[in-house]
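pasting for ref
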Amino acid sequence: MKKLSVLVIALAFGVAFWNGEGSSAAASGSTQTVSGGGVAAKVTFLNPNSRNDLRFQVSLETHSVLLDGYDLKSLALLSDDKGKSYPPTAVENKGGGHHREIILTFPKVSPDAKTFKIVIKDVAGVKERIFSWKLE
C-alpha cells in the first residue's frame, strides 16, 4: 500500500510539471496558464537562458469572446523584483477571432533581478492575469 501511495504522489507531481503548473523557474518552454472571463491566457517563456531581450508567446483562446480588440502592447507589462517595470518593445500578432497568438518582446531586466512577472490587464473582464518566473 505504501508503494502505491508513493507511486500516485510521484505521478501527480510529474503531471503537474508536465502541464507547466508545478514550477515557476525559468526553464525552456516554461508555460503558465490563467483562465477567467471565458478566456484562457497561456504564456510561454521562449528564451529563459538569455539575459538580453525577453521573449514570450502569449496564446489567447476562447469560444465566447472576440479577441481582436485587445492590444497587448498597451495591456501587458513586465515588472522585476527590483521595482522596475518594462513595457513591450515589440509585439507580433497572429490569428484572430477566438484564437490569437502574440509574441511579446521586453527589454532585458535589471542584472540584479531574481524574479519577474508579466501582468496582462483587462482582457475579457479580468482585471489582471499574473505570470511569474524566477531567473536562474
